[in-house]
Write a structure and sequence with these properties.
single chain; mainly alpha; 10 helices; binds heme C
């Protein structure tokens, strides 16, 4: 049907088209999807919740809301009912006398019984074993791993969750008073592969 020469041109055109498409997609992905490993990741949240206000100014304990952190692998994000402990009463209004929009959103979730869909900020790779409670009981402060949370208006990921980040801390010499020090361990925590890859 086509001459050989013309056929070859079509192949080249298609190849160039596919190649630039692939390049475009991977570049777009690089820009749009921040890696789960990188620091400073800060997803948009459905409600403008401020850790600075609640933990810095109002001094509410971390465990009041993240009540599983010292008991299980996951710290857990609080359900709407925890917010309602206060916001059933605390309902600041704007100049027109309407309940402020971010508080109104909480009340709508409460009335309809639907959970608030918070976006995950920290997400370690699925093939890695990580347990909060073990770290809390070893005296590691939340801020060592999550940064200055009490100053964060909008939560962000303070450290990239790379293997070297875990290991840098685990390799440190234990300081006096830490469980590892009491046991006479040379490092702060285990560094053998099977501790984190089971
Ligand atoms: C009044 C409740 C409340 C208190 C108190 C609170 N938090 Fe939170 N925390 C939340 C909510 C709600 C979210 C989810 C929205 C967000 O990421 O801002 C969250 C998210 C987080 C996240 C990110 C979770 C993820 O997806 O990776 C971290 C880390 C965190 N909190 C740490 C802390 C620390 C540390 C403290 C104490 C200094 C603290 N929080 C106190 C309610 C609270
Ligand atoms: C221990 C009490 C307490 C708890 C629990 C609590 N808050 Fe608050 N929150 C407050 C107080 C006090 C204010 C300040 C109100 C003001 O500005 O008059 C506030 C303010 C806010 C504001 C700012 C409102 C605005 O527009 O100024 C938002 C948003 C908010 N809280 C969301 C939440 C969410 C979401 C939760 C549950 C994860 C929660 N709060 C849990 C006490 C609490
Ligand atoms: C040794 C480091 C470390 C310490 C200490 C630590 N966290 Fe985390 N946190 C992480 C990692 C890593 C993740 C991601 C876990 C995952 O994806 O399974 C995480 C996730 C979270 C989350 C998201 C929900 C979840 O459990 O996956 C919250 C909320 C949180 N941390 C709060 C806290 C609070 C509050 C404290 C202090 C009481 C704390 N963390 C102490 C490393 C730490
Ligand atoms: C800021 C310091 C620090 C960071 C960062 C840290 N750890 Fe740890 N980790 C510790 C300490 C301290 C212990 C020792 C606990 C003990 O002495 O019982 C520990 C213990 C452990 C244990 C053994 C206890 C258990 O639960 O079986 C595992 C597994 C572990 N960490 C995984 C991780 C992973 C995975 C990361 C990274 C995502 C990480 N840790 C990041 C300080 C840290
Ligand atoms: C303290 C916890 C910890 C220990 C100990 C550990 N790893 Fe990892 N490893 C991780 C974490 C966290 C990741 C995920 C890194 C990411 O998502 O970028 C990882 C990822 C990996 C990967 C995937 C490639 C990569 O870098 O993402 C390999 C392979 C690996 N580890 C092998 C090992 C071997 C071999 C050892 C023993 C010499 C070991 N790990 C010890 C925490 C650990």
């Amino acid at each position: 049907m086509f001459t050989r020469k013309f056929e070859r041109r079509i192949y080249i055109a298609v190849a160039v088209f596919l190649f630039s498409g692939a390049l475009g997609v991977s570049f777009g992905a690089y820009i749009l999807w921040p890696s789960r490993r990188e620091a400073d990741f800060q997803p948009r949240q459905p409600i403008a919740f401020s850790h600075k206000l609640h933990t810095g100014d109002l001094q509410i304990e971390c465990l009041y809301c993240h009540s599983q952190a010292d008991r299980s692998a996951h710290a857990s994000v609080p359900p709407v009912s925890t917010c309602m402990n206060c916001h059933a009463e605390v309902q600041p209004k704007d100049e027109q006398g309407n309940i402020r929009p971010e508080i109104a959103k909480i009340l709508r979730h409460w009335e309809s019984g639907t959970p608030i869909r918070w976006q995950k900020v920290n997400d370690v790779a699925d093939f890695v074993y990580f347990d909060h409670s073990r770290h809390i009981h070893a005296g590691v402060a939340c801020q060592e791993c999550h940064g200055p949370v009490e100053r964060m208006e909008h939560m962000y990921r303070a450290f990239g969750l790379k293997m070297s980040w875990c290991l840098d801390c685990h390799k440190r010499e234990p300081s006096e008073g830490e469980p590892a020090f009491a046991r006479g361990d040379a490092t702060r925590a285990p560094i053998h592969c099977s501790a984190c890859h089971r």
